[in-house]
Description:
By secondary structure, the chain is mainly α. The chain has one domain (6-139). It contains 6 helices and no strands. Helix 1 runs antiparallel to helix 3 (62-75).
Amino acid sequence: MIYLGPVALESELTALTNSLRKLHLALIEHTRIAYERVHGSVAGPGELLQLLTRDPEFAWLHPLSELMAWVDELLDPRRDPRPQPEEAAAVRNELSRMLGITHDPTHPVPAGLARQSARRDGACRGTRGAPVAHRRAGKHLIH
């Protein structure tokens, strides 16, 4: 593992969380469109929030939401001590697991988060942002 100083580490975590937010929004949009195909239109942001927190069709997004909250806690300016390399490595490992990224060339890549969403209902038309956001989030894995 390469040691990053505190400023560089926080900068990498900030870049990661920004990418995760884009990925999260793209996956929410993807899931909303799939949901609306079956159940009709979502009435607005309030109903979407209720679906995100309570509906089983959106439950697969919860681990990503929790990871984002974890990174936000690490970056909280009131936090002492500041984020440590071991914590960044734990975030990296969890994100790698979630995205289906393996660092071991002898093992096949498992189905990752974005690929799980695509299999739920086939490719979702009009949501090209999820694969791009998936790649961008993966680029910010802290080594």
